[in-house]
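Running log. JK asked me to keep both predictions on one page so they can be read side by side. First protein, sequence followed by its tokens:
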Amino acid sequence: MNSGKEFLKVYGTQLKKNRFRLAAGGFAAILLIIVSAGTVNGRNLILCALLGIGCGCCIGLPKPVLSMKTDIILNLLMLGIYAFLVPRRIFWRTEFALDNHMSGLFPGAAFFNICIILILFFMILFLAQRTSLALGLTGIVCLFFTVVNHYVTAFRGASISLSDIRAVRTAVTVAGAYKYSISAELWKSIVYDLFFILLGFRIDVRLKGVKYHAVITTAAVMGLVVCFCLYHFSSYWEVDGINGENGNIRGGEKPYGAYLYLIVTGKASGMQKPLDYSDSEVTKIAEKTKEQYQGSDQETSLKPHIIFIMNETWSDLQVLGNLEVTADYLEFYHSLDKNTKKGYVYVDVLGGMTCNSEFEALTGDAMSLLDIAAIPYEMQVDHLMESLATVLKKQGYYALAMHPNVAVSWNRGPVI
């Protein structure tokens, strides 16, 4: 009893010395509750309010002064509970923020998504050598990934892939053109992750010396080795078509989960040379094709003006059926009938990745030979490449290919 009273007395003194910290925690809790009230309602509001109070406590309440042994045991216990429960909850909240309620995940996909979060923790732990920093920074990375992924998925219907990371410069140039709002599920994910981040920063196993760092380094390296083995040697990737062919996180019958999808697209993004490939055989095919499609001298001497416009926002809505309209919405286009050929172009993208349609139109190369998450401009083209513009130049044309956006978008230079 006396020890309990003494503890409360000492902790009360700590609270008095940390009044500013208490005020900051209270302000944070009130702010989160106010924003939650304007974003969610019902049970979700109660949950977010409780999480907001938890965030305020993590910020405002100082850690009690304990003996070295008690502090280590308590933090190890909290670390075990955190590692068992929190990565799973972080994964769930990422999926819910993407409106993916995980009813059709690949068998074992949830386990691998959680493992990826743990591997991220081990990587940061290896670099930081502090459990508190590793837990907190892992939560920050996951929160950032969840928020960005939410808006990317809302825009184009597919989760972030490895190729998107390489195209971040292009994303920055267009991000300001969109309107952003916070859905109820996204806000719940944000509040959850904020609580996990702040809680993680408080779990600090205070061991010192060479043995401590040896244990930390060994644990981190073992986690990375397990990741490497699963990535390169596991037969799981060939089970149920987990090989990058289904692509869309919500379009596939059995989604991967956002974290696993990132790994799958990375595994499938490379190009492998066919077993029976040879330069001489490719040359024979090219020569045969050239002879088959070679035009006559009269045809090649004609040089009509060619204007090729790609407008990704233009379409004739009549393709959807007979629309009842009060006036012709494409009067000039519909009036064209002399010296005119009309038809439809089918593309394999929607919302995002229109650069791939541009690549196909300019080069004649098909995306069907590449992974669904590939961006040839960024990932495959590392040299000057033949295109419609260069072919016309060789035929005596003055050719100009241009795009009305900034030059850094998509690394178009080697093609156009």
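And the second, directly underneath as requested:
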Amino acid sequence: MSVHPAHAERRPSPLLPSAAPFAHGGEPALRLVQMSDARLVALLHDARSRGDELDRVFPGALGAVCIGAAGAPDESRTDSMARMLTDAAPGLPVAPVQMALLGTEVAPGDAVCELWQCDAHDLRGARHGALHYRYSETAGLVFGSLVVHETDAACDAPHDDGTPLERATFDAYRALFGLLDTLGMPHPLRIWNTVPAINAVQGGLERYRQFNIGRQRAFDACRRALTGSVPAACALGSVVPVAGDASPAAPLAIHFLASRTPADSIENPRQVSAYHYPAQYGPRAPTFARAAAWADGHAAPVLFVSGTASIVGHRTVHRGDVVAQTRETVANLAAVLEQAARQGHGPFSLADLSYRVYVRDAGDTAALAAIGRVLRDAAGPHVRPLFVHADVCRDDLLVEIEASAGHAMEWLS
């Protein structure tokens, strides 16, 4: 697949977006483009009719994320979108996020594609087992996607190696770190984890806690820091059925951005760092920072804010009240931005952020509208959050919000 730099001349097309600036003289080093599945179909059809490859439509594409409900028994629009992208650009990693979109403007089955781009012309895609990745030596960046089924994870491993989810998580993260070390880009900036049935209790232990065991074991085995310099991350649950202790049919899906240069980890003064949580939250603490700020050379800093919820100290507050939880979450987001500024990143405001909102109760339309109002009141009327249906890592949390800033951003309506 040929790759063209962001400033390469393109043939005119009414469907193509104008190129956003990249890292020249302090401009953003990354770009995030969001579009509906219908818009992606139109773009790919138009490119195919002109004989263009995907890289001519989206120069410097590192990887794609397809968000929408899973398709069972038939192929969903999310699956179809991922297949079209793979057919159009076999070297492009495509990460599935099997979570239904929410909102009054969303029809059942709707899906969204997100594309991460960088300013580089030397991108190369490859596969290593289940890990599909694309990287640029010039930009020093890599995007990767890893999808594993628990039933495939060391089925013959001894029982004391942990549950199937612990083993799948450990194997996935060990493969991730091995790749980053091989590429010489050892610093994960942001990791997204989709854990099926995250709140279900199996083998006497909640599945999120099992995931944390496998993740921290991999960090430890790969000689990664367990505290302090850890990446921004989130772990949300795809809403799927489980029967007893049987592994769910849905996969554990992980995608990530990593770099040759490290990010600056940022904590929230209002919260205990997740990696210092007391043992009441599980045998191993969650291994992530509240945010990470990354800048390379003269590029403007990019801020990745981890999944953030209604937690003060280490305790959940406002149980049962989704609006109060949203307000507390926004207060935590603001505290993270203030801490980032104290560490020399920004300053960023709530109005600068791009938001994804995970909501537990998909049927509560009034709550969904109230969450949107809280965000608009705090960040301004222009805010366009992406709402998705997901289980949050604690069963008493009703909403979680992740965000990012400092990268170019475009929504293709």
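Observation for JK regarding the second prediction: The helical segments are 37-50, 54-57, 77-88, 164-183, 207-221, 322-342, 365-379.
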